[in-house]
Amino acid sequence: xxxxxxxxxxxxxxxxxxxxxxxxxxS
Length: 27
Hints:
Number of domains: 1
Helix content: under 10%
Order of helices and strands: EE
Number of strands: 2
Distance between the termini: 19 Å
Radius of gyration: 9 Å
């Protein structure tokens, strides 16, 4: 459920109901 281009330690918002990509979240 996580895009493969995401870097380690980077979190994203993904609607797990349909897998839609909502955007990245820095933390």
